[in-house]
Write a structure and sequence with these properties.
Blueprint lengths: L5 E5 L4 E5 L1 H6 L28 H6 L10 H11 L1
Antiparallel strand pairs: 1-2
């Protein structure tokens, strides 16, 4: 049975790709389930981007509160939690 393809989203560039989990992992995407976990804030990037522009970076490295994050980052948090 073929692995299901679904949308992978790079938050650094705001781009998407429709890939299987294995294709995404092999291409360097940091996305669940191979990297990180569903429902948990973790860097979600493609193989070409770093983590410095991610919500995870803003919260853990820059120590920003949710209220201090950009609207796009707050929308991402809602997407991750849902």
């Amino acid at each position: 049975m073929d692995e299901e393809r679904f949308e992978h989203w790079c938050e650094a560039r705001d781009t998407t790709a429709i890939l299987t989990c294995e294709e995404a992992f092999e291409a360097g995407w940091d996305s669940p389930p191979r990297m990180g976990a569903w429902g948990v804030v973790s860097p979600r990037t493609c193989g070409d981007c770093g983590i410095e522009q991610t919500l995870w970076w803003a919260l853990t490295v820059e120590k920003k509160s949710i209220d201090d994050c950009a609207p796009q980052q707050r929308q991402l948090l809602a997407r991750i939690l849902n």
